[in-house]
Known about the structure:
Elements: H1 2-32, H2 34-39, E1 47-56, E2 61-70
Antiparallel strand pairs: 1-2
Amino acid sequence: MEKETIIDNLVKEISEKRAEIIDSFLKMFVASRLEWFKEKPERLRRIKLVETRYNNPLDRKITTTWSIKVMSGKNRGIK
Length: 79
């Protein structure tokens, strides 16, 4: 039971840290382009977060990178 508790705590911590990183990343992006978003606030709805994972077998590491893509075209209503 102790191993399960340790694993649960690790997963929870990793999930929270990941969410904090993504949140900070998106806030920084919007802040850096604030004037651009003020011109057309609907651009905020077209932000897409892209997560890419690279598996490097030599180092036995998985690298995760995030980027932001602003989708082009008209906004389509939320369905």
